[in-house]
Amino acid sequence: MALRYHAGVSSRPEVTMAERKRRLVSDELTEAALQLLAGKGFDAVTVDEIVAAAGVSKRTFFRYFASKEDVVVQFLADLGAGIRDELAARPADEPPSVALRHAVLVPVAACGEQSDRALAVVQLILRTPALHARFLERQAQWREELTAELAHRLGLDADTDLYPRLAAGMAVTAFDAVLHRWSDSDGADDARALTDRAFAVIAPALDAV
Amino acid sequence: MALRYHAGVSSRPEVTMAERKRRLVSDELTEAALQLLAGKGFDAVTVDEIVAAAGVSKRTFFRYFASKEDVVVQFLADLGAGIRDELAARPADEPPSVALRHAVLVPVAACGEQSDRALAVVQLILRTPALHARFLERQAQWREELTAELAHRLGLDADTDLYPRLAAGMAVTAFDAVLHRWSDSDGADDARALTDRAFAVIAPALDAV
DNA sequence: CCTCGCATGTCACTCGGTGTCAATCTGCAT
DNA sequence: ATGCAGATTGACACCGAGTGACATGCGAGG
């Protein structure tokens, strides 16, 4: 299991026995799922096959993941929080285009580090309609979070001013475009450089008074 | 059945008997579905209830609509084609911000005309996760179409230059923001005015050299 | 009148997802 | 070690969306 953000090293964590067991099951499930789904395609694999490979019951699967799609998309959830937190952490006097660019660079960098597995997952998501739909839902959620954070940051009312929502939407659009390009190039393009180019395009709108 | 774009009046069309019958069934289905879904909520209504109300079999329902969500979202499909066609019809020397704004105004105006029914449908979509997901899929599709049309219009390669995809994404983002605002205001805000304001924000990025 | 084709209904089936309950395991106190 | 409380799991029944196969009915044209 590669795509997980372990906080520290394994030396002596404060995790209980049950906690580790839970993660073990979760990891075996995602491992088995990714293996099968990437190999046979999303629709050709049933949940029963996945749980058989992982050695747990179907009921347990749905205790860990809300849906079959979630096994693949779930690791993206953390990224959303990462974007928002990074945006909140940027200096208040930084122009929106710069702050948002750094925020988006968080998930981009995360993809770049484990490019092997990340690329496979991203490509699977982008070319499977059911997964893509879930991914778009996540994006919409990120947009909401960024909208709220931007409004707070700029002292605007997100229900009055269109700017926060539009700026958040543009940032997410940029991220989406970068991901598509990165996926289409099979990881050959540098995701960070793509991000910079994308933000160079949208910056004039982000920083307009 | 209100939300349909009948080409002309009923005087003496060149449609066969079977054709009219098909549309009749389709209309009764959507009518029954919208009635029930708007009243009881999306998840609380089963397809069996809908078909019972419409007086057809479940199998027939799925011959007309690919999914339960499609009954609600389907009428949005035409809008996508409308946006693209309008963009293609705009004068070639028009700056992207103006051409895209007019393109987006097509569905906006369509909503404004039959605001009663349209508002109910939009609100149902935006606050029902399953429907919202389908709606986002549609938006992604529109974005693809606008990307291709923009690239063609500007003589750019959509696989090389990031601009077409970003511009299309910004336009769709603007539309989405307008729709949300319009929905939140229960139709009180003027959708056309909102569209103009939204494009005023993103225009600096759209028209940057 | 007959038949060809199309839309529909019926039925059985798959699969994703959930509620329920009993069995099991972890942690903790005695 | 023992026993208890809470959480986790498996097994099973169940619901609803969606599909495949086949038979039937109805309209159009010879």
From TrEMBL, chains A, B:
Highest taxon in the source lineage: Bacteria
Keywords, in A-Z order: DNA-binding, Transcription, Transcription regulation
DNA-binding region: 46-65
Residues annotated as transmembrane: none
Domain called HTH tetR-type: residue spans: 23-83
SUPFAM superfamilies with a match to the protein in the record: Homeodomain-like
Pfam family, one: TetR_N
Protein name: TetR family transcriptional regulator
